[in-house]
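Input sequence (254 aa), recorded before submission:
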Amino acid sequence: MKKLLIILICFALLAASAVAEVTPLVGEALPEFTFDTTDGAAVSVSELLTTKDLVVLNIFASWCPPCRAEFPEMERVYQDHGDRMEIVAVSGDPDDTLEMIADYKAELGLSFPMGLGTDIADYVQLEAYPTTLVVDKRGIIGYFQLGAFATEAQFRGLIDYFLSERYDGTAPGVFNVYVCDKDGEPVPGAVVQFCDAACRLYTSDADGIITFTGKPARYSLHIQSVPEGYGYDPSFEAVSDGSGEWAIIELAKE
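Predicted structure, token format:
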């Protein structure tokens, strides 16, 4: 008998529709803030939106390890979309200085504006660093992220959604799918289809992760293909329930 191989697909839905009442600030207009940056300029989100379609306002602290980890990932996305979006990273720590942030920025090789934003704490209740707000062309906060993004793909998918024709002012839901074997080891290269009114294909990365960002809805998930050595049932289907809880689906190979 062939050894059974199991793929576990665990998907979490962080749908904005399911958490709208407790998600802070989403749907609100961002008040006017002006931030001093390391290059000596003063920037405001409203000014940036006169030429950009999207502004990502990241609130960090120089001592914060998750901030340091996600900035290079944000930089890569910024390099791809800097013509349409801007990132402004401001420290909310009163002990940080512009000189410290300038050294920090140079050390990490970041090109987007960085500076001080301690006044933002009067508006955003900072429960963790980093905290990220995505502000759309209308100046409306479309997404609020407490803590670092799990992967570059999660951040990239979010930006792609806001810059796409799919975005109509509706705050997105973020789906994280983890594909792994029976021992919990990641399985890269599995192709999963997400369907609501339309269907889209996503492939698990080297960490076995798929991130899908879209309008809050009930999505059906279908496995389209898996790497050699794994099997799947073509009739398999899972449906996200919008609860934000994890689900585990086991598939075996004969």
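Checked by second reader. The chain has two domains: 6-17+173-252, 24-163.
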